[in-house]
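Dear Dr. L.,

I hope this message finds you well. Following up on our conversation about the binding site, I have prepared a predicted three-dimensional model of the protein together with zinc ion. For your records, I am including the exact sequence and ligand specification that went into the calculation, followed by the structure tokens. Please feel free to forward this to your student if that is useful.
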Amino acid sequence: MKQFVTYYVYDHLQDLGKTISKKTYWETHMKRRLAMKGLLTIAAYPLIELKLPDHAIASPANLAAVTPLNKPYETWRAIVSPEAFQVLFEEKTELPGSSPLNGEHRAGTFICAACFLPLFDSSHKYESGTGWPSFTQPIAEHTATKLDYKMIIPRIEYHCARCGGHQGHVFKDGPLPRKERWCNNGIALKFILLEQDLPTLRG
Ligand SMILES: [Zn+2]
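The resulting structure of the complex is given below.
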């Protein structure tokens, strides 16, 4: 397939998911989400003092606090679909073009299908032509990477930093300025519209 012949192998693999500052996520994502919530609240209740629900209020400090669950992978089998379990916890890859999220272009957040940790903002999604949902960068510190030797050429595999669920691979053939392509299995994600509340993290 096309992407298999266009891979680049990084010299600095391990910390790729940690190179994005927390401030960047705060400024580009949560402010936008909170601003949208504020606008909707104002529109619905013009005479009522604006007060966001507590769960909608995030800060750079609590966004950074991703504590690994250390939950045995097998326990997720009863929680997610069999197909999602295969990708998330048995490191299978879904067929290209099979995910409805390929065509998802609305504003919102892509969260881990297992534990619901936000992993990608829609503003970083782009059409890579590979048949898998692709992003130019993840939410800072919400993914962790490791080398995958299943193919002849080593690839960088990334996981949800909280539950350890396998999400996809990252390559150095994405668009400028970062040149990164975070190639994700759609079944390992759920999409939450910007105007909807993010679900409570699942344990
Ligand atoms: Zn997760």
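In brief: The longest strand covers residues 143-148.

With kind regards,
A. P.
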